[in-house]
Amino acid sequence: MPTFEELKQKFEYYKDLAFYERAPDSAKFAMILAILYLLSPVDLIPDFIPIIGFVDDLIIVPMLFAWAFRKIEAAKALHQQQAREEFGTGPIDHCETN
Fold first, then answer.
1. Number of C-beta neighbours around residue 23 at 10 A
2. Neighbours of 30 (CB within 10 A)
3. How many angstroms separate the CA atoms of 94 and 23, rounded?
4. Mind listing the pLDDT tens digit for each residue in 77-96?
5. Distance CA 78, CA 49 (A)
6. Burial class (CB within 10 angstroms; exposed 0-12, middle 13-18, buried 19+) of 64
């Protein structure tokens, strides 16, 4: 089971990814869509149906965020690679990636 410090580090990592200024627009759109879907009263399976009403939320929202974070990580890696090639330096941001 992860420790509190490990959870805190993971949270900070994903928060930094979510607010990465050079994130692809498609990733930003996916995160906004996930939040809107979670808050929306219109679902694939209506929330008022006991138990299974929340299953679509538990599947769709994490999938959208996972896809968005993968896109952002790839974009961030590409930007860092381009910076290393252009300037001959290491990572250009101040956040460490694990």
1. 19
2. 20
3. 16
4. 999 999 888 887 655 555 55
5. 44
6. buried
Judge whether 77 and 23 are in contact, CB under 8 Å.
no
User: How many C-alpha atoms does 68 have within 13 Å on its Cβ side?
Assistant: 26
Residue 37 falls inside a structural domain:
yes
Cut 0.85: pTM above it: no
Residue with tokens 């994490």: 62
Q: What is the residue-averaged pLDDT of the chain?
A: 87
Tokens encoding 53? 């009403």
pLDDT in tens, 1-60: 889 999 999 999 999 989 999 999 999 999 999 999 988 888 888 888 888 888 888 999
Domain count within the chain: 1
Domain that holds residue 47: 4-87
